């Protein structure tokens, strides 16, 4: 198969161009991992009751908002590395699932940006109001779940990805577990109309903490060194496998 965008385009064009840009890709991979790791630590800290008590309502929400920004920056890098445009008809299933996983994940982080920003503004306006503060975003959590499922699909055919290390079982498994935990947290954060209280404050915080720990671990495990010479060899193999023998 020829003309797949996710391989050559993510590397900057043909194999020669990709080779010249190899050091840039190694740096990007490290920034992506650090972005998810730092964002996860922010969400973990914000979900801990003793941190919230120490930092106060406003600064706890600042922590969540900063974490969402790091998530978005890391997700954007991952989307760029998955291909600069949506998959085409001849894109392999693994690269197609990889791109959509990254795109939906990026959309989910934007939803978290909006919800954390709204919570922060509300906390600044009325820091002493009952129940003020960020709660897990339902739509963002759903986006993370869908993205994690697509990442699992990409991992099943990871040998067909142009960068087979982009999706690994420990990474997609931990991200799926983290997405489920965020989903549980979002359900627990639902306000019961009859009582005006959350379904479960404990599970709201616990789900966020578990999810953040899973995302952090996956990010740390994804940090690896890819030497330019090895990346050139992978690009050449990927191009040869996609283009096939001459007609």
User: Which segments are poorly predicted (pLDDT under 50) over 5 or more consecutive residues?
Assistant: 1-22
Count of separate DSSP helical elements: 9
Q: Describe the main β-sheet briefly.
A: 2 strands, antiparallel
Q: Indicate the mean pLDDT.
A: 77
Strand content: under 5%
The percent of residues in helical segments reads over 70%
Shape: elongated
Instruction: Give the strand tally.
Output: 2
- Spatial sequence of strands, sheet with the most strands: 1-2
Query: CA-to-CA gap between the ends?
Result: 12 Å
Helix and strand content put the structural class at mainly alpha
> What is the C-alpha radius of gyration, as a whole number of Å?
20 Å
What's the SSE pattern? HHHHHHHEEHH
Short summary of the structure?
This protein is mainly α. It has helices at about 5-10, 15-20, 20-45, 50-80, 95-125, 140-155, 170-190, 200-220, 230-245, and strands at about 190, 195-200.
Overview of the molecule:
It is built from 9 helices and 2 strands; from the N terminus they run H-H-H-H-H-H-H-E-E-H-H. It is an all-alpha fold and 247 residues long. The protein has a two-stranded antiparallel sheet. Helix 3 packs antiparallel against helix 4, helix 4 runs antiparallel to helix 5 and helix 5 packs antiparallel against helix 6.
């Amino acid at each position: 198969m020829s003309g797949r965008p996710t391989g050559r385009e993510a590397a900057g064009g043909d194999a020669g161009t990709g080779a010249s840009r190899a050091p840039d890709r190694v740096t990007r991979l490290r920034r992506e991992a650090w972005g998810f790791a730092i964002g996860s630590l922010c969400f973990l800290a914000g979900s801990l009751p003793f941190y919230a008590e120490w930092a106060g309502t406003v600064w706890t929400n600042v922590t969540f908002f900063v974490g969402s920004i790091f998530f978005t920056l890391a997700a954007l890098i991952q989307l760029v590395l998955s291909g600069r445009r949506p998959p085409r008809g001849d894109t392999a299933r693994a690269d197609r699932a990889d791109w959509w996983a990254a795109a939906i994940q990026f959309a989910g982080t934007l939803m978290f940006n909006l919800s954390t920003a709204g919570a922060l503004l509300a906390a600044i306006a009325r820091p002493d109001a009952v129940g003020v503060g960020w709660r897990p975003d339902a739509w963002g959590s759903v986006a993370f779940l869908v993205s994690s499922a697509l990442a699992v699909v990409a991992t099943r055919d990871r040998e067909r990805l142009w960068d087979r290390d982009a999706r690994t079982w420990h990474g997609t498994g931990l991200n799926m577990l983290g997405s489920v935990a965020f989903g549980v947290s979002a359900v627990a954060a639902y306000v019961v109309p009859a009582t005006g209280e959350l379904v479960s404050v404990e599970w709201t915080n616990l789900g966020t903490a578990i999810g953040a720990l899973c995302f952090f671990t996956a990010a740390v495990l994804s940090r690896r060194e890819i030497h330019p010479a090895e990346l050139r060899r992978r690009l050449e193999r990927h191009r040869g496998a996609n283009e096939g023998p001459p007609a």
